[in-house]
Specification:
With 90 residues, the chain is mainly β. It is built from no helices and eight strands. The protein has one domain. Strands 1, 4, 7 and 8 form a four-stranded antiparallel sheet that branches. The structure holds zinc ion.
Length: 90
Amino acid sequence: MAVSFSRMSERKCAACGATDLEPGFLVESVPGGATVSTWLRGYAEFGVWRGLKLRGRELYYIEAHGCRACRYLNLYIGAPTSPPASDQPT
Ligand SMILES: [Zn+2]
């Protein structure tokens, strides 16, 4: 599945104000490969047996746009993952 980047032209570097941002994303390792890192609204809750509780909560892909001028990494909330997260690793 492709994750698209939206409204790049409206974005400016939070550090220097430049508009020349290079699209990218954060990668995390998962069993069997890698995936795009995600963002979860709210506070982390941990269960007794399974660790971090994710069931029924909305996750969003993290867009990470690098500034070509100063190399600052600008993070944005991207598209929601689909379907919503479960507590089981995929
Ligand atoms: Zn910058």
